[in-house]
Design goal:
The protein is α+β, with helices and mostly antiparallel strands and 562 residues long. It is 40% helix and 25% strand. The chain has a five-stranded antiparallel β-sheet with strand order 9-13-10-17-16, covered by helices on one side. Helix 5 packs antiparallel against helix 10.
Length: 562
């Protein structure tokens, strides 16, 4: 009898817990879904008060709508800043909401100065209409000018697998019709729709002391963010939920991040994957190996997703040539030796490719291979003699078509990226192992080597820019007169002689220079000329200081009689 009562009590308790979990899951789902979009174009500020000793300010604007925040760029030294920024915020309340706007003055090294604030009640604005607003600042003088549009909710939803929008044939037909070619010029912001089915994860990292985790999944598409419920005490969770996002830019990247829920502190990171929308194969259930925070190497676990993307090709193409949406929340950059080394190596690889191409072209001029140089010379003469402007885009077109059919660069790029990440992981592991043996001075020397190289590169780039400026500024009159002479001669030649003849003459000179003088040292006349122009640093070093006025000779004779 007692056993029967215990079983009944357990069943009732489990049933109550399951119902409570379902109610919490439903509340969690509803709290995430937004009911509309607030599109804001921050235009300008007018007649702001000066906050700096120079009688100007460095203003920027902060927006807040519920938990959402956005900060504009800083415009330096002005009382009438032109921001010209566009961004969207989510509207969670049907009645609207209160949009808080504050204007600040940027100060380096101390707290920013408050300029003024204003509030806007969105419930007073008509929807589906663009409002031109000039909002006066309440606690000071000045205005903030913006354009604001309230639109109905985009396609955003969280549903069970049995109720997904794209699995319903009628609704799928409607969506395909909405994004057909015939609808290419209606509602240009609505490019498409993406549906993400989050099935399950396997083999996750144990984040708790019990050897388990409490995982939940966060999905982000630009500034749109949705998340699953938490599955407690499980390393192989199943969510079986479908998330729907509106696509504003087909070049966006879907980020799926797994966290371990902790009640007493912030969630622990378990893994992450980033999936460009253009890389998605519709309807394919795929397991993605989780990566670390930097997305440079694998971590423990796999997540299984099924993604469908439907979009209008014309809208997507037109959206490609407008500024991309910026993320509201981004990590603050930190100084990192590995990141500095990695970025330096990336730039170095880029320039090494250019140098290799330049070396190959120069080898044709140097006649290292007679066959190659003859072919190059004949090709050069034929192309220059018959050149027309349409050949430039045609050459790029042929290059793209050739790479599409014959190039294996994609596999090579994948291998090079994997090699780069493996090298970074090996470097990090090596540093971790040797950190006990390496002293602080050795680490400083490693950073110093990279910094010296970067410093030298920046010096060279800056010096060339300053030399061009100093040529125009007549810092060295002789070189400026020489530049005038060369430019005058070039102007006369280009006016009298067709361009193809001049290019042919230049090419014939380059190709035959080695034949005419095998021991001639190659040079670049323009760079050689610029090397004679002093940079700003050199001009300051060459600048003569005025001698301090000393006592006159008569006074010197009086004070020192002989």
């Amino acid at each position: 009898m007692n056993k029967t009562v215990c079983v009944c009590v357990c069943v009732c308790v489990c049933g109550d817990q399951q119902q409570q979990s379902m109610r919490l899951s439903e509340l969690h789902r509803k709290s995430q879904l937004w009911r509309g979009i607030v599109s804001i174009a921050l235009i300008e500020g007018r007649n702001l008060i000066p906050m700096d000793p120079n009688g100007l300010s460095d203003p920027y604007v902060k927006f807040r709508l519920g938990p959402q925040k956005y900060r504009s760029k800083t415009v330096l030294k002005t009382l009438s800043p032109q921001w010209r920024e566009q961004f969207d915020l989510h509207l969670y309340e049907e009645s609207g909401g209160m949009l808080e706007i504050t204007v600040w003055d940027k100060d380096t090294g101390r707290r920013d100065d408050f300029i003024g604030r204003c509030e806007l009640d969105l419930s007073t604005l008509a929807k589906e209409h663009t409002h031109h607003l000039e909002l006066p600042l309440e606690e000071s003088r000045g205005y903030v000018v913006l354009l604001l549009t309230l639109t109905a909710s985009a396609h955003v939803s969280i549903a069970d697998l049995s109720m997904t929008p794209l699995d319903d044939p009628h609704e799928r037909r409607e969506i395909l019709k909405r994004y057909s070619v015939l609808k290419s010029f209606s509602n240009m912001k609505d490019v498409g729709i993406v549906q993400v089915k989050v099935m399950r994860a396997e083999g996750l990292m144990a984040a708790d002391v019990t050897g388990k985790s409490d995982p939940f999944c966060v999905l982000e598409l630009n500034n749109d963010r949705l998340q699953t419920h938490t599955v407690y005490k499980n390393l192989n969770p199943e969510w079986n939920k479908a998330f729907t996002f509106n696509v504003k830019d087909i070049h966006s990247v879907l980020e799926v991040t797994l966290f371990d829920e902790d009640r007493d502190r912030s969630a622990d990171f378990l893994g992450k994957v980033s999936i460009p929308l253009l890389h998605i194969r519709n309807g394919e259930l795929k397991g993605y190996v989780l990566k670390n925070k930097e997305l440079t190497g694998p971590t423990k676990g796999t997540i299984y997703l099924e993604v469908d993307v439907i979009y209008n090709t014309v809208k997507a193409a037109l959206k490609t040539v407008v500024p991309a949406e910026q993320k509201y929340i981004e990590d603050e950059p930190k100084v990192s030796k590995h990141l500095l080394q990695q970025n330096f190596n990336r730039v170095k690889r880029f320039f090494m490719v250019l140098i290799s191409y330049g070396t190959y072209i120069n080898s044709c001029f140097e006649w290292e291979s007679a066959q190659r140089s003859i072919i190059s010379f004949v090709l050069f003469v034929v192309v220059v003699w018959n050149f027309e402007l349409y050949m430039l885009p045609l050459a790029l077109l042929l290059l793209l078509v050739w790479n599409y059919f014959f190039s294996s660069s994609k596999d090579t790029d994948d291998m090079s990226m994997e090699a780069m990440f493996e090298w970074e992981d090996e470097e990090e592991d090596k540093d971790d192992k040797e950190s006990e043996h390496k002293g602080l001075m050795n680490k400083l020397y490693a950073i110093q080597d990279v910094c010296i190289t970067v410093q030298s590169t920046l010096d060279e780039v800056a010096s060339h820019g300053e030399r061009i400026k100093n040529t125009v500024n007549w810092t060295v009159p002789f070189l400026s007169w020489l530049a005038i002479t060369a430019l005058s001669l070039a102007t006369v030649l280009l006016y009298l002689i067709p361009l193809r003849y001049l290019v042919l003459a230049w090419g014939v000179n380059k190709f035959t220079k080695k034949l005419r003088d095998p021991y001639m040292i190659d040079n670049n006349e323009l760079l050689d000329f610029l090397s004679r122009v002093p940079s700003d640093v050199q001009a300051m070093q060459y600048h003569e200081l005025k001698a301090d006025p000393g006592p006159s000779p008569n006074k010197r004779k009086r004070t020192n009689p002989s």
